[in-house]
Amino acid sequence: MSSPLPILIIGAGPSGLLLSLLLSRHKIPVLLLEQSHSLNPQPRASHYTAESCIEFSRAGILPQMYSQGFFPNGVSWRRLNPPHFSRLIKINNPVSDENGFKMVCLPLHRLGQIMEDELKKEETAEIRYGTKVIDIGEVEEENPYVVLEDGERVKGRYVIGCDGAGSRIRKRLFGEDYFSGYTWDKQIVATNVYYGGFEGVAYDDSQFFVDGEHWHMVAKIQEDGLYRVTYGDIGGLSYEDLKKRQPEKFRIMLPGHPTPDKYRLVNFSPYKVHQRCVDKMRKGKFLLAADAAHLCNPFGGMGLTGGIADVGGLYECLLGIHAGLADDSILDKWDEVRRDIWHKVINPISTDNLKRLYQYSGPDEAMEKDPFFIMMKKAEEKEKEMNGTGKKEEQDNPGLPPLRYDMTQHYAK
Predict the structure, then answer these.
(1) What percent of the chain has pLDDT over 90?
(2) Closest CA to 108 of 246, 304, 266
(3) DSSP secondary structure of 31-64
(4) Residues 6+ apart with CB under 8 A from 408
(5) CB-based contacts of 359, cutoff 8 Å, min separation 6
(6) Bridge partner residues of 191 (DSSP)
(7) Cα–Cα dist 292/123, whole Å
């Protein structure tokens, strides 16, 4: 008897690795194809919500994440100008949620290494690096396949595009220019930096700075003092122009107004920011997940969190189909649910997260007019009334609306 066809997963980013690991843990054959020759070594996104940790727990890697990462104390919004760096609002992260999960910070390249190491132990999983997919097709509408750069056709039970914002799978399914939404006119620059001056001020583990011109985010991403500094700059500038402007941006934004000899810049990555979502995440045996299906700006980490939620639901669907508990129609429900969550939760919240940093004349106007700030200030005032005395500038994190959706409720009874 011939071996069952594997599920083909395109792209060894966090979503592709996680989906491959979840499926292979249940002995479902998986072939992961990645055009690069190794994992991305850059320490990129790093914060994983308690809700996301459910999926890492199901993949069996959460203890390693907890031991290698750290637990951030919360997030604040601050002013840049006098009184310098003072807090407007702080939200504390809870010790854990009702299920015992808690937010953890671990740079993405280290998470990727954990998942790759575990995936290599699974007999039903295979990773092929240096393998570029250039086309897709179907055989008798039953067996989808991908065409590799060398002309080889690789067949699978399903093809899952986890190949990022420039997804080749999406483009071959729907066309080169298909991706509903828009591109921000703001230029984002992401950097990783070691700078001792962060330790000399009362920074939190993560903070956003509200400023019409120099809006930015500073977050600790490693215990050794590596920080992520992501800031806005003038749109339309070349890489070279943005690189020339970086020292002056740091001098203005960072405590101590440092010159380049005072810090070590590890990474400098300008990129365009998009708010986009496909009109369909499924077409026959082909599916799109995470950044291949939808994008949002990085302020608040909802792109990564939404992608992890995509993968968790898709895993439940494919597991149900494999076990005979569901048929293909469950994938249509997954498609509907995931796009609905992007439009109703991820898109509006991530859009507001970015706008509140720059759209007001300054922090004082933002505190007066921004709905989120108004809500948090009212909560603070109510708590002070209940306590009777004392000023409170920190609050417990109210959390996000759920991004996960339990697809097992659609299994056959």
Answers:
(1) 82
(2) 304
(3) EEE-SSSS---S----EE-HHHHHHHHHTT-HHH
(4) 316, 320
(5) none
(6) 229, 268
(7) 27
Number of other residues whose CB lies within 10 A of the CB of residue 387: 9
Residue with tokens 């919004």: 77
d(CA 79, CA 85): 5
- 3-state secondary structure string across 361-378: CCHHHHHHHCHHHHHHHH
C-alpha span between 266 and 249 (Å, rounded): 16
Task: State how far the Cα of 384 lies from the Cα of 386, in Å rounded to an integer.
Answer: 5
* CATH class belonging to 7-45+108-180+278-353: alpha beta
- Look at the domain 71-105+184-274+360-397 and name its fold: D-Amino Acid Oxidase; Chain A, domain 2 (3.30.9)
Q: Which residues pair with 394 in a beta bridge?
A: 90
Rounded to an integer, what distance in angstroms lies between the CA atom of residue 56 and that of residue 39? 19
DSSP 70: B
Q: How many CB atoms lie within 10 A of CB 155?
A: 17
- CA pseudo-torsion sign 57, 413, 404, 172: positive
> What average pLDDT does this structure show over 244-256?
97
Six-digit token string for 256: 């101590």
DSSP designation for 346: I
pLDDT range class, residue 397, cuts 50, 70, 90: low
pTM: 0.93
Beta bridge partners of 330: none
- Here the tokens at position 158 are 């399903």
Under 8 Å between Cβ of 231 and 189: yes
Q: Minimal CA–CA distance to 18: which of 337, 307, 287, 288?
A: 307
Rounded Cα–Cα distance for residues 360 and 354 (Å): 12
Domain boundaries in the chain? 7-45+108-180+278-353, 71-105+184-274+360-397
Q: How many whole angstroms separate alpha carbon 13 and alpha carbon 319?
A: 21
The predicted-structure confidence for 32-56, as pLDDT tens digits, reads as follows: 999 999 998 877 768 999 999 999 9
User: For residues 395 and 376, what is the distance between their CA atoms, to the nearest angstrom?
Assistant: 8
Pull the structure tokens for residue 136: 């897709």
The percentage of residues in the chain with a pLDDT greater than 70, rounded to a whole number, is 94
Which letter does DSSP use for residue 410 in this model? G
Map residue 288 onto helix, strand or coil: strand
Number of H helices, E strands in the chain: 11, 20
Lowest mean pLDDT segment, chosen from 33-47, 170-184, 224-238, 247-261: 33-47
